[in-house]
Specification:
Structural class: alpha+beta
CATH topology of the largest domain: BirA Bifunctional Protein, domain 2
CATH class of the largest domain: Alpha Beta
Number of domains: 2
Number of strands: 14
CATH architecture of the largest domain: 2-Layer Sandwich
Shape: globular
Oligomer: single chain
Length: 249
């Protein structure tokens, strides 16, 4: 059960680091590690992630999956979808998934997810989640926003955490490596730029094409040069270009 055991720290380097340390000491699956401030928070592709203390919700969830680590590809997008559910229930509109693991409101990032896995020697997965809850807009890049700004009122981080954990626990209880058709339809409905042209950066190459939706294993389906491909890693760097202004993610 996610959230039965919870740790809270005033300041840490990264909740991911603490979660893996706890895993090495035998912590149970579902353990949640929350921090009011991270001095070395991490995002995807090795980026740092830092916001003022007490303005965001930053936590990690330790999981002990019963499937091989290479079958966890769909867990990031499923986690992002669960977060969308919580934000919509809180009153946010125009909520979208940016593949593979970001949540946008009105086209601006409000939450990011980082999935890391290790063999210790048993399979361990840690999902790091950051939500801009009450973060001042002046502390965020122009491509990001916060729930407080979107909803026009302050958010109780503890209450938001409880809501997220409840939804994630339900998701994890029924999660399978292969996404069902019904869930794929839900993901595709919320998928940012679905059916539109986009450019995706995968390692050192750019892939330009039309986004077709989410594959059963969590990959991104794209139409490139009249051929459908599945992309398993990468980042959408830009969407379709207006006449003289480039659209940023």
């Amino acid at each position: 059960m996610i959230g039965r055991t919870r740790w809270r720290f005033r300041s840490v380097t990264s909740t991911q680091d603490i979660a893996f340390q706890l895993a090495s000491m035998g912590a149970r699956s579902g353990t949640v590690v929350r921090a009011d401030y991270q001095s070395a928070g991490r995002g995807r592709l090795g980026r740092t992630w830092e916001v003022p203390a007490d303005t965001s919700l930053t936590f990690s969830i330790l999981l002990r999956p019963d499937v091989p680590l290479h079958q966890l590809g769909s867990l990031s997008i499923e986690t992002a979808h669960a977060l969308c559910t919580v934000l919509i229930a809180a009153g946010a509109r125009n909520v979208a998934l940016k593949w593979p693991n970001d949540v946008l409101v009105d086209g601006r990032k409000v939450s990011g997810i980082l999935l890391q896995t290790r063999s210790m020697p048993d399979a361990v997965a840690v999902i790091g989640i950051g939500v801009n809850v009450n973060t001042p807009l002046e502390s965020l890049p122009a491509t990001a926003t916060s729930l407080a700004a979107v909803l026009d009122h302050a958010i109780d981080p503890a209450d938001m955490l409880d809501q997220i954990i409840t939804v994630l626990d339900s998701m994890w209880t029924t999660w399978r490596p292969i996404i069902s058709r019904n869930r794929i339809a839900e993901l595709d409905q919320k998928l940012w730029l679905n059916g539109r042209q986009a450019t995706l950066l995968d390692a050192d190459r750019e892939i330009a094409g039309t986004i077709l939706g989410v594959a059963p294993d969590g990959a991104l389906r794209m139409l490139v040069d009249d051929r459908e491909i599945s992309v398993h890693a990468g980042e959408i760097t830009r969407g379709p270009r207006p006449t003289d202004v480039e659209m940023l993610p």
